Amino acid sequence: MSNLAVLPIIIPLLSGIILAFFPKRLTFVRILSKIFIVSNLAVASFITWLVFSQGPVILETGDWAAPYGIIIVADELSILLVLTTNIVAAACAFYAPHSLTDRKEKYYFYTFFFLLISGVSGAFLTGDIFNMFVFFEVLLMASYALIILGGDKVQLRESMKYVFINLFSSMLFVTAVGFLYGTVGTVNMAQIAQRVQQVDQQGILTTVGILLFFVFAVKAALFPLYYWMPKSYIVPNPVISALFGALLTKVGIYAIIRVFSLIFVHKIELTHEAFIWIAGLSMIFGVLGALSTQNIKLIIAYNIIPAIGFIIMGIGIFNQDGISGSIYYLIHDMLIKASLFLLVGTITYAAGTSDLRKFSGLIHYYPFLGWMLFVSGFVLAGIPPFSGFIGKVLLLRGAFSAGEVVIVIIALLSSLLILYSIMKIFIRGFWGEKDQSFQPKSIKGRTAPIVVLLALSVFLGIGAEFIYPSIESISKYLLNPADYINAVMEG
Amino acid sequence: MEFIISILAGVLFATAIYNLLQKQFLRLVIGSVLLSHGAHLFLLTMGKLKRGAPPILTDNVNDYTDPLPQALILTSIVISFGITSLLLVLAYRTAEENNTDNIEQLRGNENE
Amino acid sequence: MIYTVLIPLLLASFIPFISKFKLKIHTGVFVFLIPLVIFLYFIQFIGSGFEPVRHTYNWIPSLGINFDFYLDGLSLLFALLISGIGTLVVLYSIYYLDRSEPLGHFYVYLMMFMSAMLGIVLSDNVFVLYTFWELTSISSFLLIGYWHFNERSRYGALKSMIITIFGGLSMFGGFALLSVITGTASIQFMIANTDIILASPYTPLALGFLLLGAFTKSAQFPFHIWLPDAMEAPTPVSAYLHSATMVKAGLYLVARFSPVFGDYEWFFIIVTIAGIVTLCWGSYMAVHQTDLKAILAFSTISQLGMIMAMLGFGTKVAIFAAVFHILNHATFKGSLFMVAGTVDHETGTRDIRKLGGLLTFMPITATLAMFGTFSMAGIPLPFLNGFYSKELFFESTLRLQDDISSIAGFLVDIIPYLAVLGSIFTFVYSLYFLFGTFGGTSQLDKLTKKPHEAPLGMLISPGILIFGVILIGLFPSAINGTFIAHAAEAVYGGPIAKDIYFWHGWGSPQFQMSLIVVGIGAVLTATRTKWSGLYHVFPGKLSINKIYDTVIEKLDTVSTKITTFYMTGSLRTYMIIILSTILVVTAGFMLATGGITIDFSDLAPVTAIEVSVALMVAAAAIGTIFVKKNLAVILIAGVAGYGVSLLFVIYRAPDLALTQLVVETVSVALFLLCFYHLPDLKKRNEPLKTKTINTIISVGFGAMVTMIGISAHSSDWFGTISDYFLKTSHSLGGGDNVVNVILVDMRGLDTLFEITVLGIAALAIYTLIKFKTNRGGK
C-alpha cells in the first residue's frame, strides 16, 4: 500500500520518458499525454482520499528504514498539493495543443512538462532534505528547458538570468544541507526536527535555518529575492507561464511551510516575526510592480508576489487560523494563477498584443473572456464568496489573535490594489467602443481549461465547507510536529 | 584542518560571487563552477576529514571516513555538471542570438 | 427568507435567455414581478405586534459563516424599501430604457444588486453581510459602467469601485477583529456582549475599520466624491442604488452597530462630525451644480450626512428621526431622480442652464417635482413628510445636552447652528432645482428635442412615491406604530415611543429654526446669482476629486518609477540585492542567536601537502578574477577543479575524486568549445565603486559562509547516521563500497533523479541547438 506514495512521482517520470520516444508523432503524443496526466490525476486523487481517510502514507524507499533511507511522505499537506499540481497540470495539458506551435510540441514539450510535474510532486512528497534538493533540480532543469523552448532572443536573454539566480540558490541549498548535516548528523527531515528540538535550536542552528529560508525564498519569489521572476515568467508560452506561476514558486513556499513548521520552530519570536515583515514588504512591492506595467502578462506575474506574501504571513503568525489561512491561500493561488496566466495568454492571443494601451472594447467580441477575467479579479483579490476570501478570513483572524495589526492593514490595502490591477485590464481592455475593423480570432479549445480552473477556485470559496475541515486538520497537524516525526520515525 | 578547508570553501564562494557580479558570460559560468566547488568542500568538511580509511569495507579496518557526504557530493557533482553544460550552450546561443556576451546589455523592456 | 435573497439572483441568470428572444415585450415586464413578489412577502410583517424572525441556513458552519437571516424592525424597513423602490424602479425603467439597449445585462446587474442589498440588511452573520456588501459594490460598478463606451462611465465605475471596496475591505477587517474579540460572527451576539467589546484594547481600531466602511458606502465627506460620478449610470439606477438603497447601507451598518458602540464617546464624536460636515458640504455644493442629477447627487450626500449625524447623536429622538428620514428620503429623492430622468428623456439634456419653463410643457412632472422638492426642503406644510423629519432633526440637535455629558461639549453647542446652515442650503438647492427646471422662461432653442409631457408609464413610479410623501405626511402616526418604531428600537436597543406632532407651537425652538431656514433660504434663492461667486473663493481650487485623481495617477507613475528603479533587467543589480539581503539578514541572525561557536578540539591535523593543495585551489580561484584571456581563465578554473579532486583524494573519497576528474575534463572541453570563438574577456575598466561593492559583497559572503561552516562543524551534537550505512552496507546492501551502496540502494531515488536531471539537460541542449538550425525549415 505504501508504494502508492511514490506513484505521483514515477508516473510522470515514465510518461516523460515514453513521450520522448515519439517526438514527431504529434497526434499520438497529444492523446497519450492527456491519458497520462489524467491517470496521474486519478492516482493522486485516490491517494488523497486514502491519506485523508486513513492517515499518512509513508514509503521507505528500497526498504531502508527511516532515517537511513529516503522517505516519501504523503501526508495531508503534501498530497493535497500534489493533487492541486495535477489539476493544474491537466488543465495545462489540455490547453497546450491550442497554444503551442507544433514545432515546440515536437521539441519535447510534453517530456519536459511531465518531468516538471515529477520534480514538483517529488519536492512535495519527499521527507529527506537532500532528496528535496534533487527534486528541486529536476523541476528547475525541466523549467530551464521549458523557458528556452523556442529559443527566441527574449527567452534566451531572460533564461540566462533565471538560470544563474536559481543556480546560485541551488548551491546555497547544498551548502545549507551540509551545515545542517554537520550539526545534526542526518538529512532525514523528521530526524532533523527531532534533533533540533533536543538541542532547542541552539547556537548556529537558527542561522542555518535562515540560510535555508533564503534558499526557498528565492524560489518562492519573496521580497526582496524575486527579481528573476516576473520577466522570466512571461517570456515563454502562456501554458508554460501558467505551470511556472502555479507551481514553481509554490514549491518554494511549501518548503518554507514544511521546514518552518517542522524543524525550526523553537525561535519563533525571531524567525517567524521576520517572516511577517517580509510578508508585508512582498505585498507592497509586488502590488506596486503589478500597478507599474501596462503589459497584461506582467501584471499577472507580479501578482504572484503579494500572493506569496499572504501565504508567508500566515506562517509568520503561526497559529492555527494563520496556518490554515496560508494553506487555503496556497491552494487557491495555485488554481487561480494558472487560470489567470492561461486567461491573459488567451487575451494576448485574441488581442494580438499584451500591451494594454493597444486594445480596448474586446468585450464586444469576447464577452466570455471578459467575464472570466472579471470574476478572476475578484477571486484573486479575495472578494467573497470566492476562494481568496476564505483564506483571508483565516489570515485576518489569525493575525488579530496574534496582535499583528499592521500586517492586516497592509494586506487589506494590497487586496484593493490587486483588484485594481486586474480591473484595469477589464476596464481598459474590455470596456469601450466596438472596434469595427477588428478581426476576431478563434479561441476554440482554449477556454475550457480556464473555465475548469476558475470553476474550481470559485468552488473553493463557495464550497468551503467541503474543504476547510481538511485544511484545519492540516493546520493542527503542522502545529504539532510530533505527529510527523512519529509517523516517519516509527512508521 | 577542517577550518582551513572551510576557509578555502569560503574563498571559493567569494571568488565565485565576484565572478557572478561580472558582465561577461564566461566569467558568470566560471563563477557558478567555483560556487559548486565551494559547496562541495563544505559538505565534505561537515563529515569530518580523514577520520579513517576510504569508505570501502575491508577486513581489519574499523574506522572509515563518513560515506554519506561523499554520496551527496557525488549526486551534486553530476547535477552541477548537467547545469553547467546547459549553461554553456545557453550562453553560447544567447551570445549568438543577441550579438553580445555582456549580460548587462540584456535588459530589455517590458512590452515585448 | 433565504428565497427572497436568492430568488432575484437565481432568476437573474434566466434574464439573458429571455432577452435573447427578440420578444415584442420589454424584458423589464418579466423582471418587474420579482421585486413585487418580494415586497408583498415583506408587507405581511408590518404590524404593531411584530417580533424579530430568525432563519439559519448553513454555509460554512466549520468557520462559523452561515446564512443567518435575522429580520427585525430595522431590517424590515430596509427590506421594504429595497423591494418597494425596486419594483417602482423596474417599472420606470421599462419606459426609460429603450429595447435596443442590452437590457439583459441591465436587469441581471439590477437583480444581482437587489439580492445583495437584501442580503446585507437580513444577515446577522458579519462575514455574510460583508459578502453581500461587496456584491453591491460590484453590481454598482457594473451599472455605472453600463454605457461603458463613455469615458466618463468608465471613470465613474472605477472610482466608485475603488472607494467602496476600499471601505468594504476595511469593514471586513473590523468584522474579523470583532469576531476575534467576541468569538462569534453574529451581530446580535456582539450586541449582547457589548461589554466584552468595549473592554478590549482593540475597540478603537474595530470602530475605525467599521466606520471607514460605512462612510465610504454612504458617501460621507471626504469619501463622497464617487457619488456624483456614479450619476453616469442610467437614471433608474441612480434613483435606486445611489439614492434610495445602496448608499444607505453605510447608515444601516452604523445603525446596526449603534447598540454596540452607542456608549462609546468616540463613536458619537466621529459619526456626528462626519455627518454634520457632510450635510453642510453636500448642500452647499449642490447649489453649485448645473447637471440635474449632480444636484440630486450632492443633495443625497447632504441628506445622508444628516441621517449619519442623527445616528451619531444616538439619542431617542435622533434615532427615531434618523430611521424616519431614511424612509422619507427614499420617497422624495427617488421620485426626484425619476423626474430628472424624465426631463432628460423628454428634452435631451439635464443641464439646468438649458432648461427652464418646462411647467407649461410637462405640468404633471412639474407637479410631482414640486411636492418632492418642497418635502426635501422641509417647507412647513402639514402634508409633507420631509418637514416632519426636519423638525425632528432640529429637535434632536437641541436636545443633545439632555442625554450626553461629554467632553465634546463644544460640538454639542455648535451642532444646532450647523444644522440650520446645512438646511438653509438644502432649501436653496431644492428650489433651485425646481425653478431652474420648471420655472422661468423656456429656452427651446437650446434643446435637441421639443419637450412634451412624459408617457404615463414614466409618471406612475414617481407618482406613487409622491403619493407616499403625502400619505406619510398626512398620517405620520400610522406608520410610526407599525414599523418605524420597531426599526428605531432595534437601533436604540430599547423602547422608543415617539409620537410625531406637526404642531409644536409658535414658540417651539425647532419651528423657529424652520422659519429661519425658510426665511434666509428664500432670500438666498432669490439672490443666488449674486453670491455664486463665493464658490470661486470656497472651495475654489480645493478639490477632493483632484486628490483622488492624483492618487490614482500616482499609483501608476510612482509604482512605475519605483519598480523600474530596481527592476532594471540587470543581473548584477539583482544579484547585489539578493546577496546583500542574505548576507545582512543571515549575519544578523547569527549574531542575535549567538550562533558563532569555534571549537578546536575535534579537528584533523594540518599537513603541509593539504595546505599547499588548498593554497593552489585558492590561488586559482582568485586568479580567475584577474586573468583576461578566455583560454587562460578556462584553464585556471580547471586547475581549481583538479585541485578539488586532489583534495578528494587526500580526504579518502576515491569515487569523488574520479568523478570530479572526469567532470572537470569534460567541462573544460565544453568551455573551450563554447567560448573559443567568442571574443576575449574585455579589459576591466570598471569604476572603483563597482569594484569596491563587488569586493565587499563577495568577501563578506565568503566570510559569512565560512563562519557558519566553522560554527556548524563545531556544533557537532549528534553522531551521524552514517555509522548505520557502514554497518549494513555489506550485510544488507550487498556491497563493500559504501558510497556506491548508498547511491544505488539507500539513496537510490537521488541517483535516479540525478540521472533524470542529466537527461533533461541533454535534451534541453539538443533542443537549444536543433531548434536554431532548423529555423525557417518545416
List the helices and strands and how they pair.
The complex is a heterotrimer of chains A (491), B (112) and C (778).
Chain A: H1 7-19, H2 26-54, E1 57-60, E2 71-74, H3 76-99, H4 102-125, H5 129-147, H6 153-184, H7 189-198, H8 205-220, H9 229-234, H10 238-262, H11 268-292, H12 296-317, H13 320-351, H14 367-381, H15 387-401, H16 405-430, H17 447-462, H18 464-479, H19 481-490
Antiparallel strand pairs in A: 1-2
Helix pairs in contact in A: 1-2, 1-4, 2-3, 2-4, 3-4, 3-10, 3-13, 3-17, 4-5, 5-6, 5-10, 6-8, 7-19, 8-10, 10-12, 10-13, 11-12, 11-16, 12-13, 12-15, 12-16, 13-14, 13-15, 13-17, 13-18, 14-16, 14-17, 15-17, 17-18
Chain B: H1 2-20, H2 25-46, H3 67-98
Helix pairs in contact in B: 1-2, 2-3
Chain C: H1 2-12, H2 15-20, H3 27-43, E1 53-60, E2 65-71, H4 73-96, H5 103-122, H6 126-144, H7 151-182, H8 187-192, H9 194-199, H10 203-217, H11 226-229, H12 235-244, H13 249-261, H14 265-286, H15 292-313, H16 316-347, H17 363-377, H18 385-398, H19 400-403, H20 409-438, H21 456-474, H22 476-492, H23 509-526, H24 528-531, H25 534-537, H26 544-566, H27 571-592, H28 608-626, H29 630-650, H30 654-675, H31 688-714, H32 722-733, H33 738-746, H34 748-773
Antiparallel strand pairs in C: 1-2
How is this structure best described in words?
The complex is a heterotrimer of chains A (491), B (112) and C (778). Chain A is mostly helical. Chain A has 19 helices and two strands. Chain A has one domain. In chain A, 76% of the residues lie in helices and 2% in strands. Chain A has a two-stranded antiparallel ribbon with strand order 1-2. The two termini of chain A are 13 Å apart. In chain A, 74% of the residues are buried. Chain B has a single domain, classed as Helix Hairpins (Orthogonal Bundle), CATH 1.10.287. Chain B is 65% helix and 0% strand. Chain B has three helices and no strands. Chain B starts with a helix and ends in a 14-residue tail after the last helix. The mean pLDDT of chain B is 87. By secondary structure, chain C is mostly helical. Chain C has five domains: 261 residues, no CATH class; 263 residues, no CATH class; 27 residues; 152 residues, no CATH class; 58 residues, no CATH class. Helix content of chain C is 73%, strand content 2%. Chain C has a two-stranded antiparallel ribbon with strand order 1-2. In chain C, a hairpin with a 4-residue loop joins strand 1 and strand 2. The radius of gyration of chain C is 38 Å and the shape is elongated. In chain C, 55% of the residues are buried. Chains A and C meet through helix 4, helix 5, helix 6, helix 7 and helix 8 of A and strand 1, helix 6, helix 7, helix 26 and helix 27 of C. Chain A: Keywords: Antiport, Cell membrane, Membrane, Transmembrane, Transmembrane helix, Transport. Chain A: GO terms for molecular function: antiporter activity; NADH dehydrogenase (ubiquinone) activity. Chain A: Its main location: membrane. Chain A: It holds the Pfam family Proton_antipo_M. Chain A: It is found in: Cell membrane; Membrane.
